[in-house]
Amino acid sequence: MSDTPVIGVLALQGDVREHLIALASADALARPVRRPEELAEVDGLVVPGGESTTISKLAALFGLLEPLRERIRAGMPVYGTCAGMILLADKILDPRSGQETLGGIDMIVRRNAFGRQNESFEAAVEVAGIDGGPVEGVFIRAPWVESVGAGAQVIAEHGGHIVAVRQQNALATSFHPELTGDHRIHAYFTEMVRAVG
């Protein structure tokens, strides 16, 4: 890998464009990923927000589910926001019928825990490892983490609930940093990808 890592954004559903912009501003070469051959060409991957059940079904339809699981198990850096956090959980507390996860983080996640679309909100969130003060988190039908296993590290909480977790090369936030213009978390993830090199 050169000093400019190639980071994909899973482009099946959700706010793909905003993540591509945030990654580019963090000096990564950002590209959409829709097929297994595109996944094979990236050094790291962002799993965006959207609807977690829809994303998992589309991933299966596009032949991406198993290749994604294999790359994550093999240590590819991955970052999930909102629905992406749900997909990176080893367990979902209240899964929809037929919903599958990619796994990667030893955590139990509750879907839509912060409420419905009309209860969306923004909040300043202190994230361990992110310098320069709190990040502005946009919470849209956001999940929270009920509990984490021994391998997972809680790096942010809001209102007494876990909203950001890291486990080795996997990172997840229940909020959307890509919607704020503050790209520090994407820069942090880009450094995670560089470190795997």
- Give me the number of helical elements: 6
**Percent helix:** 25-40%
Strand order of the largest sheet: 2-1-3-4-12-11-10
Question: Secondary-structure element sequence?
Answer: EHEHEHHEHEEEEEEEEH
Folded structure, characterized:
With 197 residues, the protein is an alpha/beta fold. It has 6 helices and 12 strands. Strand 11 (161-167) and strand 12 form a beta hairpin. The mean pLDDT is 93.
Give a nutshell description of this structure:
The chain is α/β, with parallel strands linked by helices. The protein has helices at 16-25, 36-39, 52-61, 65-73, 83-88, 184-196; strands at residues 6-10, 29-33, 44-47, 78-81, 89-92, 105-110, 121-125, 135-139, 144-148, 153-158, 161-167, 170-173. A 7-stranded mixed sheet has the order 2-1-3-4-12-11-10. A 3-stranded mixed sheet has the order 5-6-9.
